[in-house]
């Protein structure tokens, strides 16, 4: 058994207590991680090869070809990043700047607005360590960590003991789920812990809760039980340190964030509540913070000389839908699997580069593929956890593959 502890990059919880056993330079056992983490750490079943136009080649040639595609493009798209180290992300931003390219990541169609509101201090937040030590009321709103972040409840939120929560679990904490279905997390929250709302019912529920917190009778068009709403408002008012874990179920349901801002303001006038976005990919937040530092925006950017353009029209979805990009570099993402076919089909019509440890549907359509080491397992670096805390990563095993940061550096040198 290796006596060091490592970080799992299987999700944005970045658990830093992972033990491993290594024999003959190979990873044989993973301790402490959840099943999702173990599967991730054990690596790809089908590692990516270095190829140009489907023919295997050495990495040098693939890097040269990738740089040549980017140099010849007028409007390249640099997309992905949520599964890349912060070092690779920073160079990706530099490549987009150098090539007058578009740069965007997966937060563009998931947690972008939540992270943006937090970075701009429009929503009060806290760290997961604060949650463990202080939180007494937890709300899983449109999120299901029992499946998405399997160690969330045991390591940080519901079950653990903390400095001000010496008993942990239900003796010290109240866990509530607000969701459209009885998720596995709702089961853990107990008999009265689920507030089941209809699909797209989040805004009304939020507004009704805001009314209840102001002492008014809460109303919803779907006749949610007023007594239960008032009871919930009573629990929230009594919270000493409350946290909302906002999932995509909530974010996709809100047409804008004004009801959320009003709700959080009201909550914080009667108690103390924080919000943490349940980011999925391990370094989505890192990309948002790195791009924000460079440009003042968290995603959806187009460089144009010294000018930085930003807006929905520069999102990956719009850029592909309107066919405004003429080449694409995809790193640490698989848009052909995760975005609608009608939009990503265009990627097959333009020169496409993928950089990834594993074969993906996107890599099977790429003109150039460049393998990289699996970050956190075969290479180190840094990443930013879902709560904004930077975490150092170190490799568990050695590899002869380049790190994602080194691949990006090599492409940049060729530009
Ligand atoms: Fe890895 Fe996430 Fe599981 Fe923690 S909860 S071990 S970071 S997959």
Account of the 3D structure:
The longest helix has 14 residues, at 59-72. The chain has 415 residues and is α/β, with parallel strands linked by helices. The strands form 4 sheets. Strands 4-3-16-15-14-5-6-12-13 form a 9-stranded mixed sheet, covered by helices on one side. 37% of the residues lie in helices and 19% in strands. It has 2 domains: 46-109 and 282-374 and 402-414, Rossmann fold (3-Layer(aba) Sandwich), CATH 3.40.50.740; 112-277, Dimethylsulfoxide Reductase, domain 2, CATH 3.40.228.10. The site of iron/sulfur cluster has 13 residues, from α1.
Low-confidence stretches: none
Largest sheet: 9 strands, mixed
Helix content: 25-40%
This entry's quaternary arrangement is single chain
| Rg, alpha carbons | 22 Å
Number of helices: 19
Kindly name the structural category.
alpha/beta
Beta-strand percent range: 15-25%
Span between N and C termini? 44 Å
Shape summary: globular
Looking at the overall shape, the CATH architecture of the largest domain is 3-Layer(aba) Sandwich
- What small molecules does the structure contain? iron/sulfur cluster
CATH topology of the largest domain: Rossmann fold
- Read across the widest sheet, the strand sequence of neighbours is 4-3-16-15-14-5-6-12-13
Return the average pLDDT rounded to an integer.
96
Whole-number total of structural domains = 2
Structure summary, number of beta strands: 18
**CATH level 1 class label of the largest domain:** Alpha Beta
């Amino acid at each position: 058994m290796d006596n060091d502890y490592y970080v799992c990059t299987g999700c944005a919880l970045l658990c830093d207590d992972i033990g491993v056993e290594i024999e003959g330079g190979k990873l044989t056992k993973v301790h402490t991680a959840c099943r999702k983490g173990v599967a991730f750490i054990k690596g790809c079943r089908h590692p990516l090869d270095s190829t140009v136009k489907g023919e295997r080649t050495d990495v040098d040639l693939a890097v040269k070809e990738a740089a040549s595609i980017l140099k010849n493009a007028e409007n390249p798209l640099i997309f992905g990043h949520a599964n890349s180290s912060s070092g690779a992300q920073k160079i990706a931003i530099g490549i987009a700047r150098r090539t007058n390219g578009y740069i965007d990541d997966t937060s563009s169609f998931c947690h972008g607005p939540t992270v943006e509101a937090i970075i701009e201090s429009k929503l009060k937040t806290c760290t997961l360590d604060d949650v463990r030590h202080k939180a007494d009321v937890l709300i899983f709103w449109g999120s299901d960590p029992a499946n998405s972040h399997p160690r969330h409840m045991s390591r940080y939120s519901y079950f653990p003991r903390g400095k001000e929560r010496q008993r942990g679990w239900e003796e010290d904490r109240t866990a509530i789920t607000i969701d459209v279905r009885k998720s596995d997390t709702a089961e853990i929250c107990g008999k009265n812990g689920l507030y089941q709302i209809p699909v797209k019912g989040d805004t009304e529920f939020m507004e009704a809760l805001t009314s209840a917190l102001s002492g008014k009778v809460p109303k919803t068009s779907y006749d949610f039980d007023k007594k239960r709403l008032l009871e919930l408002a009573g629990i929230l008012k009594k919270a000493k340190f409350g946290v909302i874990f906002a999932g995509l179920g909530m974010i996709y349901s809100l047409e804008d964030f004004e009801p959320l801002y009003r709700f959080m303001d009201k909550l914080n006038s009667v108690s103390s509540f924080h919000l943490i976005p349940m980011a999925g990919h391990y370094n989505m937040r890192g990309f948002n913070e790195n791009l924000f530092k460079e440009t003042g925006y968290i995603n959806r950017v187009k460089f144009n000389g010294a000018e930085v353009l930003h807006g929905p029209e520069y999102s990956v979805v719009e850029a592909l839908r309107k066919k405004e990009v003429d080449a694409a570099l995809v790193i640490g993402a698989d848009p052909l699997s995760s975005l609608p076919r009608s939009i990503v089909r265009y990627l097959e019509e333009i020169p496409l580069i993928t950089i990834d440890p594993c074969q993906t549907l996107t890599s099977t359509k790429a003109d150039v593929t460049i393998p990289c080491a699996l970050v956190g397992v075969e290479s180190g670096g840094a990443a930013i956890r879902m709560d904004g805390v930077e975490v150092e990563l170190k490799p568990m095993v050695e590899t002869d593959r380049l790190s994602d940061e080194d691949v990006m550096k090599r492409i940049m040198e060729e530009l």
